[in-house]
């Protein structure tokens, strides 16, 4: 498929089939994420893949609560990826301070999307999650307290009706400006 077709195919999947995702395919997605560009080539990430069923369920349970029940679909995931923020290299840190930008957050976003695009090409569904109990997730995954989890990504083959859903997008002319915002 061409790139725009792949982009249209990649959408946040919130209903997963029972079929497990093959480790080889997950490793291919991890390789795509590993190869993502980053500010000053700092590669400020570590990827923790969880595909053991019991641990996947426990990690999924950190993404919702009685106060925020909206991520319960994650319990259907066959795997979850945690992207751990690592200290960026010195040049990236200096640039971030000078420009008042958290380049490492942009970097993990690029890596996450590389993972999700590769998954979409393989017919695997994903959903990026920023809402989770970080302390509990850190404990489950043996992540040092001083490290942060930037994102979780739920993973699984989409249920047939879920894969066909097209999410609405704003029209091109509503979000694109040429040469000037006004």
> What is the percentage of strand-forming residues?
5-15%
- Rounded to an integer in angstroms, the radius of gyration calculated over CA atoms is 17 Å
* Sheet with the most strands, sense and barrel status: 4 strands, antiparallel
**Approximate shape:** globular
Percent of residues in helices:
25-40%
Instruction: Count every helix, treating DSSP H or I runs of 4 or more residues as helices.
Output: 8
Task: Report the strand count.
Answer: 4
Helix-strand category: alpha+beta
Summed over residues and divided by their number, the pLDDT gives a mean of 94
Give the neighbour order of strands across the main sheet. 1-2-4-3
**What is the chain-wise order of helices and strands?**
HHEHEHHEHEHH
Distance between the termini: 36 Å
Low-confidence parts: none
Please tell me about this protein's structure:
It contains 8 helices and 4 strands. The relative contact order is 0.23. It has helices at 3-9, 23-34, 53-60, 90-99, 103-121, 134-141, 160-163, 172-175, and strands at residues 45-50, 79-85, 125-129, 148-156. The N and C termini lie far apart (36 Å). It is an alpha+beta fold and 182 residues long. The chain is globular, with a radius of gyration of 17 Å.
């Amino acid at each position: 498929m061409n790139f725009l077709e792949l982009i249209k195919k990649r959408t946040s999947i919130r209903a997963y089939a029972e079929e497990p995702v093959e480790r080889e395919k997950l490793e291919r997605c991890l390789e795509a994420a590993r190869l993502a560009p980053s500010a000053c080539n700092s590669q400020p990430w570590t990827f923790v893949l969880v595909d053991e069923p019991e641990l996947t369920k426990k990690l999924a349970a950190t993404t919702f609560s009685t106060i925020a029940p909206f991520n319960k679909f994650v319990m259907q995931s066959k795997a979850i990826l945690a992207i751990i923020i690592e200290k960026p290299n010195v040049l990236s840190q200096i640039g971030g301070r000078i420009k008042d930008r958290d380049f490492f957050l942009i970097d993990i976003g690029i890596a996450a999307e590389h993972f999700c695009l590769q998954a979409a090409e393989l017919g695997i569904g994903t959903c990026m999650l920023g809402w989770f109990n970080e302390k509990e997730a850190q404990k489950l995954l043996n992540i040092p307290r001083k490290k942060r989890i930037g994102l979780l990504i739920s993973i699984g083959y989409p249920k047939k009706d879920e894969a066909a859903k097209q999410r609405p997008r704003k029209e091109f002319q509503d979000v694109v400006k040429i040469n000037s915002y006004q």
